[in-house]
Amino acid sequence: MRKVILDGNSLRIEDIVHVARNNYEVQLSTDAIDKVIKSRELVDRFVNEEKVVYGITTGFGKFSDVVISKKEARTLQRNLIISHSCGVGEPLDEEIVRGVMLLRANALAKGYSGIRLETLNTLIEMLNKGVHPVIPEKGSLGASGDLAPLSHMVLVMLGEGEAFYKGARMSGKEAMEKANVPTIELTSKEGLALINGTQVMTAIGALAVYDAINISKMADVSAAMTVEALNGIVTAFDEKVHQVRPHEGQINTAKNLLRILQDSKMTTEQGQIRVQDAYVIRCLPQIHGASKDAIKYVKEKVEIEINSATDNPLIFEDVEEVISGGNFHGQPMAISFDFLGIALAELANVSERRLERLVNPALSGLPAFLVKNGGLNSGFMIVQYSAASLVSENKVLAHPASVDSIPSSANQEDHVSMGTIAARKARAILDNARKVLSMELLGACQAIDLRGNKGLGKGTQVAYHIIREKIKTLENDQIMNVEINKCEDIVKSGIIIKSIEKSIGEIYY
Known about the structure:
- This protein has helices at 13-22, 30-48, 73-84, 94-108, 117-129, 147-157, 172-179, 190-195, 199-229, 239-243, 248-260, 279-282, 284-305, 331-359, 361-364, 381-397, 419-451, 458-470, 480-493, 495-504; strands at 3-6, 25-28, 88-91, 131-133, 136-138, 162-165, 168-171, 314-316, 321-323.
- By secondary structure, it is mainly α.
- Its EC number is 4.3.1.3.
């Protein structure tokens, strides 16, 4: 069985994908087990001594000045989970829930949270046996972490709430019984340790980052096909141009385009047909490159976050100290995921503009709307409408969530990140961007056929054949959303990128 070992420090985005999408099992490292046990021993000692420590022997938020007795510790933790389960909306997708559970387990494995080992093992066992709590998508302010959605995760550990198990939705109690996972009773600090963190926003965002990398590569492929369909000028991609403005994403995009288009008989050189192309062709390295640099930045931030302790208070057992801080605040992720959404929106934006150049006979020199017998046939006319609708929606979604804040908990929590909203928006933008790129790919293939395929580049030839194996040239009008969905499925599968990389080597991002 394929496994991911959790030590709290070395989780990768690829590991999240393996667990969330490919059902890899999860196991704690020996070092992590030792740290968790030692951290818990300190919590137990402070409880026995009735020391006043936030979240262990006090209430939460505005109630931090209310001291809770040792006798009431278990009631306090249960009440925390029950009262904080205020999520609303549709359930998060299974892959996101699995990502959430994995990231919370990894954070707890660092040994700064004071949770009991058996409680952490219950969460891991649920993940390994496919008990997926129903976590409503809305209701988090992103500080103090993702309190509401994470509470819904913990409900199932208590035999409460709801879960999906083997494709069926049922009570949390029934799901745990069917999977043969014993439910638990929380004790001091454990409820807070399980819900006070950024794992929901980070799970959504981490999967979006992984997909964004592939989308950024796919954008170069679809753009390259459009360059060929329009007999675009490749001189603008010359390495010399980009070395004098050496942004990494820009340089990499220019390299990608030249490699993907290598040996093409459909591209041109400067002055051969015209002196220069419009911006959406000529400035491809600059436009795509900026988005790639943004995606790379977000990836670096996510890789820090997925190996961080993000709850409060933190237990430093080596110095026997408990510190109440603010690592639960989602601002680093909120700004990052807003940035990711903007980067993805721009990839879709420029793709739609390239599609417009393909369908507009005044700009392309091709039959109007890429169809013979126009008038009787509308061809790709409304495909461009649909793409325009999606990029317009993306512009609304790209408004940053992180610039908003509404104070909570009687103004004790007077600045919040809205990071989970930012992550959800980035994911929605990504979905729209994938659809727009699929529309451009269809349009570019059609335009190449109408122009006359004189010989495509090493990379574009691979992409063209994969698409044409499933989707034929449009001769007469048909239901276009069927073709769009087919193309999106191809893009989503990753087969085009894998096949091109096998042919020409890595496509850079």
